[in-house]
Write a structure and sequence with these properties.
mainly alpha, globular, 273 residues, 1% strand
């Protein structure tokens, strides 16, 4: 009997250790975010985006790991969700906002000179995103984001890769800030079950093309037909995410919520991402 008790305690300790290791993995996101911040201060956007990409990867998989490790059961006094929000605000909002200001991505001379408009854009991003992270209705019951989900790291990435002009950048920041408060649905690439068999491969394609284009931006001697193909694939995958978000918002509409509520109590046929 004592042996069974020891074995049960050992198994519990192992599972608790696994749960803590998942939290440690999540925490690596803030390390990657800080290294991105350091790269920004060194005027190295290439390295900054690489580290932001690492943080994005960590955030993309740590939720699935946490659910599998049952972290709420084995580390009940540690709130992984709060940890995730702290890290996400830093890597999705604070560092990208700094990039807009530091690299002066909105260098307009309208009323104000210098980098004032870049500062205004950065401040707007920081302020509006507070609503996103405090919004208890951030996600719908079928795991779409409700309103723009403060993925400013991705927005700044597009500014960088597409070499968009200052007015385009400012208008984009303002429009996305407004969309933060409007219940337009944005697809979560891993958790949404609609079209998942297409969405996950498109997510992998987008990530691969993004990495390749960032490298090409750093080493322009790699330009050519290959880069043109990469740009088209990058654009195709981007349009896919926009299309599924618009489909959920304007075509499926409230039926998506109703269908999900009808499924309550039924076992999931697919594991959550």
């Amino acid at each position: 009997m004592a042996k069974l008790t020891r074995n049960a305690q050992l198994e519990k300790d192992i599972k608790k250790g696994i749960a803590w290791s998942v939290h440690a993995f999540t925490t690596f996101g803030i390390v990657a975010g800080f290294l991105a911040l350091v790269a920004v201060l060194k005027n190295d956007p290439f390295t900054a985006f690489i580290w932001l990409g690492v943080a994005l990867f960590v955030d993309g998989v740590d939720g699935s790991l946490a659910r599998k490790a049952r972290v709420t059961e084995y580390t009940p006094n540690f709130d992984g969700a709060s940890l995730d929000l702290v890290i996400d605000y830093f890597t999705y909002v604070a560092v990208p906002a700094l990039m807009i200001y530091w690299f002066d991505m909105v260098p307009l001379d309208f009323y104000f000179g210098g980098s004032t408009w870049s500062l205004v854009a950065a401040v707007l991003i920081m302020a509006v995103s507070c609503y996103t992270f405090a919004n208890v209705g951030m996600k719908s019951s079928d795991y779409y984001f409700v309103g723009f989900p403060a993925i400013w790291n991705v927005v700044v990435l597009y500014f960088y890769l597409l070499d968009t002009g200052p007015l385009t950048n400012l208008i984009t920041v303002v429009l996305l800030s407004i969309l933060t408060f409007i219940p337009v649905k944005f697809v979560h690439p891993l958790r949404v079950t609609h079209w998942r068999s297409w969405t996950i491969p498109m997510t992998v394609l987008w990530a691969a093309m993004t990495l390749s284009l960032i490298i090409s931006k750093k080493f322009p001697e790699n330009d050519g037909i290959v880069e043109q193909i990469e740009v088209w694939l990058f654009g195709l995958s981007s349009l896919y995410f926009a299309a599924i978000s618009l489909w959920r918002t304007f075509i499926l509409g409230d039926k998506g919520e109703d269908e999900d509520e009808a499924e309550d109590g039924k076992p999931e046929t697919q594991s959550p991402a």
